[in-house]
Amino acid sequence: MSDLKSNIAVALALSPAVHAATKADSPIVDLQGAGSATVVINTGAIAGAGDYTISLRHGDAADLTGDAAATGADLIGTFPATLAADTSYAVGYRGNKRYVRAVITKNSGTSIAAGATIVKGSLALRGAV
C-alpha cells in the first residue's frame, strides 16, 4: 500500500464547534507548496431547523483582502445548497490563488456542529509545505 500521509499536509479551516452565527473569520490557509487542495467538512447536530451553507473564499493577499468566492471552474464538485446533519463533504480546489478560507453561513435556525479541514496534496510536485 502506498503512503498517503507523506504526500499530504492538513490545515485547520474551521474549528470544530457548535456555530450559532456566520463564521467568516476562520483561519486563512496558505496553499504555497501544494499542487492540489480539498476542503473536507464534517457536520454534527443541527438545532432549530437550521439552514447553514459552506463556501470557500480565495485570494492572493495573506490577509485575504480583496478575496472572492471560489466558484465554478475553481472547484471540483460543488458545496451543498444546505448542510445536512451528521454528514461529511469534500470539494476540491483547483483555483490559482495562494490563500483560502472556509466560511460557514447561518441562513436560519439555532446552531450547527461543524468543522472543516483543508487537505493539501501533490506536495512532491511543488516541494514541501
Provide an overview of this structure.
The protein has 129 residues and is mainly beta. The protein contains one helix and nine strands. It is globular, with a radius of gyration of 15 Å. The two termini are 23 Å apart.
Oligomeric form of this entry?
Answer: single chain
Instruction: Tell me the radius of gyration.
Output: 15 Å
CATH topology: Jelly Rolls
How many β-strands, per DSSP? 9
Q: What is the CATH class? A: Mainly Beta
Cα separation of the termini = 23 Å
Order of helices and strands: EEEEEEEEEH
Percentage of residues in helical conformation: under 10%
**Count of separate structural domains:** 1
Q: Stretches where pLDDT falls below 50 for ≥5 residues?
A: none
- Mean pLDDT across all residues, rounded? 93
Q: Which word captures the global form?
A: globular
- Sketch the major β-sheet: 5 strands, antiparallel
Trace the largest sheet across and list its strands. 1-9-3-7-6
Strands, helices and their partners?
Blueprint: E1 9-19, E2 29-30, E3 36-47, E4 51-59, E5 68-69, E6 75-76, E7 88-93, E8 99-108, E9 111-121, H1 123-126
Antiparallel strand pairs: 1-9, 2-8, 3-7, 3-9, 4-5, 4-8, 6-7
